[in-house]
Specification:
Blueprint lengths: L3 H15 L14 E11 L3 H12 L4 E5 L9 H4 L3 E3 L7 H12 L3 H7 L4 H13 L3 H8 L4 E4 L21 E5 L20 H15 L3 E5 L2 E7 L4 E7 L5 E12 L8 H7 L9 E2 L8 H8 L4 E2 L7 E10 L2 E6 L8 E4 L21 H5 L14 E6 H6 L22 H5 L4 E3 L2 H10 L9 H16 L21 E9 L6 E2 L6 E3 L5 E7 L15 H17 L4
Parallel strand pairs: 1-2, 1-9, 2-6, 9-20, 10-13
Antiparallel strand pairs: 3-5, 4-5, 7-8, 8-9, 11-18, 12-13, 12-17, 14-15, 15-17, 16-17, 19-20
Helix pairs in contact: 2-8, 2-16, 4-5, 4-6, 6-16, 7-8, 14-15
This protein binds flavin-adenine dinucleotide.
The site of flavin-adenine dinucleotide (FAD) has 45 residues, from helix 2, strand 2, helix 3, strand 3 and strand 7.
Length: 560
């Protein structure tokens, strides 16, 4: 039995404490103690940082990894993830794979590919990806022979044939595990190795790789706060350790920023995400993602790249915030029979069945961000998932094996006791009462009316009785009535892994200035500097972190 109150408070506090106050760091660092000279200094120990460190160490480099979270509580987004990564068949046509992947990196990729005008940097990187990704499982098993993977037939082949007219390539997304893989619904956080699954398993495998390499020193509880500038180049990083000491780490070959995304940095979110700055994005990732690497890069003159689309995961939008960012819980139930999505006025606006696991995930944020000029508002932000008690009895609501629920940052039970108690999910004996509760919710501003919600449900249920959805042509197999009290509503938003905006980099993952010149000695990998900014098959994010993390390790060692 979880004890939500205590757990939530404790985690919230612990996480808030480990967030760096970068602004405070702008004082003199002159007195920093010398923590040593390394070949490579890597900032952040998620998938990208671990892959870079291991690869560099395997090529003989001496590596320091600075990780701001304390070891005992270390939980990067990589660990909270579903642990799906791509590992195409080894005998795949690498040239074709490269073409497909290139076409998915930017939104006009297919068009530019046909015209032969793709950015050479993207072509170089997709070439690296096509050669390296097929070795991923083998590489992970070289770190820990006990590592296993599971696979799901729906993740096997490339899915973007509407933008891609080539062969249906075997992308093969693997799910990290150590024992028999069960599902994404159950967290295995902190369980013995044989029981680890998903992000927890991938994290354990990478940690094992790090642990076995004597030439990698990991400094936990050590927040990189400043880059050391030398003779026209970045020559190291300065950090603050858990005891408040300033340490300086010298890097002979380069500093790699691998500090994850910026979702818990309100200013960067406002600047880099679409929508008004207070658009209620939800996030289920690690609160350590405060955009530090982006700020460090900016301090060295780096440029920023924006996104062209988001990978949309649906999330319950909670009222709790960390660093001004609303927490989210990743949902597993959107589009399932017996639920609908309505806007803030109680109207449906989309066929919910198209939002099940399909390409549509990528475009939904456009729908959600529809702006209404007459009211100067976003009527669909957030939206509301409406369902009834029969739905609750047969449908798992959240994927507890990934995101904020994994390490109990958010306590959530699938029968919604905690969620209802805390007002994250609204429950009511009648539709009219539900509408009144939505109306009183701070995200609705009194916009919904009982009449509108009742009409929507009446119309929907009438269609269900005839196995049709005249308004949106929803897949009849997903039609089931919403008629058994109690009725429920939860504010629905999007959880964004954020692999879409960040530092501007060149082919060899060197950080670039706004005008495209390399910042000497500075590299980046992972979410802090995404390559893929458009769409990807399942596992694309982790795959990118692993592939380009390894690549930057080779680059530093002069082997690429
Ligand atoms: C719920 C969820 C599920 C996901 N599932 C998948 C999936 O199945 N497949 C997939 O491909 N993608 C998935 N993603 C996305 C994927 O997890 C991320 O893209 C990936 O983990 C990012 O890895 P990273 O190494 O870039 O950063 P992270 O894993 O976030 O690691 C960054 C590290 O840097 C540290 N750090 C930050 N700032 C500093 C600093 N100043 N000094 C020192 N250290 C610092 C942080 O503490 C952290 O440990 C998911 C994302 C979420 C939120």
């Amino acid at each position: 039995m979880i004890q939500p109150e205590g757990l939530f408070r404790r985690n919230f506090l612990a996480l808030s404490l480990c967030l760096p106050a970068l602004a405070e760091s702008r004082d003199a660092f002159g007195g920093a103690a010398d923590a040593g000279t390394y070949d490579a200094v890597i900032v952040g120990l998620g998938a990208a940082g671990a892959a870079a460190a291991i690869e560099a160490a395997d090529r003989g480099l001496k590596v320091a990894v600075l990780e701001k979270q304390p070891q005992a509580a270390h939980c990067p987004t990589t660990r909270l993830s579903s642990g799906i990564y791509q590992c195409p068949d080894k005998n795949i046509d690498a040239e074709l794979l490269q073409k497909y992947v290139t076409a998915t990196y930017v939104n006009n990729g297919r068009y530019l590919l046909d015209k032969g005008e793709l950015d050479p940097v993207l072509t170089e990187l997709s070439g690296v990806w096509a050669k390296t990704a097929p070795q991923t499982t083998e590489w992970l098993q070289s770190l820990d022979p006990d590592f296993r993977y599971a696979s799901d037939s729906s993740y096997t082949v490339s899915r973007f044939l509407n933008i891609w007219t080539g062969t249906r390539l075997k992308i093969r997304s693997h799910i990290a595990t150590y024992g028999k893989w069960i599902d994404f619904l159950h967290p295995t956080f902190g369980l013995p190795k044989a029981k680890k699954m998903n992000g927890e398993a991938l994290y354990a495998c990478l940690q094992e790789g790090i642990r076995k390499r004597r030439n990698i020193d990991v400094y936990y509880g050590c927040t990189a706060r400043k880059l050391i500038a030398g003779d026209g180049a970045v020559e190291g990083a300065e950090a603050l350790d858990a005891a408040g000491r300033r340490l300086s780490f010298r890097a002979k070959k380069g500093v790699v920023l691998a500090s994850g995304n910026f979702v818990f940095n309100e200013a960067l979110r406002s600047a880099l995400l679409p929508g008004s700055c207070d658009f209620p994005w939800a996030t289920a990732g690690s609160p350590s993602n405060t955009g530090d690497g982006i700020l460090l890069g900016l301090s060295a003159g780096a440029g920023i790249i924006g996104t062209s689309v988001y990978f949309d995961r649906f999330a319950a939008l909670l009222t709790e915030k960390i660093n001004g960012t609303r927490l989210g819980v990743v949902l597993d139930c959107v589009g399932k029979p017996g639920s609908i999505i309505v806007d803030n006025y109680g109207r449906r606006y989309i066929s919910e069945s198209t939002l099940e696991d399909s390409e549509q995930h990528f475009g939904f944020f456009h729908e959600m961000l529809t702006f209404d000029m007459s009211t100067l508002s976003f009527p669909r932000a957030p939206s509301w998932l409406i369902f009834d008690h029969s739905f609750l009895l047969k449908t798992p609501i959240a994927t507890l094996g990934e995101g904020s629920t994994v390490n109990a940052t958010v306590p959530w039970d699938q029968n919604l006791t905690v969620a209802v108690e805390r007002g994250w999910v609204l429950a009511a004996a009648s539709v009219a009462e539900l509408a009144a509760k939505i109306s009183a919710h701070p995200d609705n501003h009194g916009r919904i009316s009982a009449k509108a919600l009742q009409e929507t449900l009446l119309e929907f249920n009438k269609g269900v009785a005839q196995a049709s959805d005249p308004l949106f042509d929803r897949n009849p197999e997903t039609l089931a009535p919403i008629s058994t009290a109690p009725f429920y509503a939860l504010p629905l938003s999007i959880d964004i892994p954020h692999m879409a905006a960040g530092l501007k980099t060149a082919g060899k993952r060197r950080v670039l200035t706004w005008d495209g010149k390399p910042v000497k000695g500075l590299y980046a990998a992972g979410e802090v500097a995404p390559v893929s900014r458009f769409i990807h098959d399942k596992g694309g994010h982790l795959s990118e972190c692993l592939v380009f993390g390894r690549y930057v390790g080779r680059v530093l060692a002069g082997a690429a």
